[in-house]
Write a structure and sequence with these properties.
Largest sheet: 4 strands, antiparallel
Shape: globular
Number of helices: 3
Distance between the termini: 9 Å
Strand order of the largest sheet: 2-1-4-3
Number of strands: 4
Radius of gyration: 13 Å
Length: 82
Amino acid sequence: MANLKIRTYKKNETHPDTTISIPISILRFAKKVIPKHAFAALHEKGIDIDMIVELAQNEDIRGNVVEIEEHKKNKKIVIAIE
């Protein structure tokens, strides 16, 4: 079963500082319980969670969907469908 993975990294680290996994099968429902501030943060970065949900339904789409590098904060966020 595929998962939506959201990983945060500190600058120049190869292992994630935080990983969030959401099974694709419950993604449509899970987005209803994700805190509003998390959606706001994603929206602020230009990430449309509804589009990611739609992409995740396609079994041919796997891998990194979005990579955000916040240079001033020395961190990177990777959203992937695995």
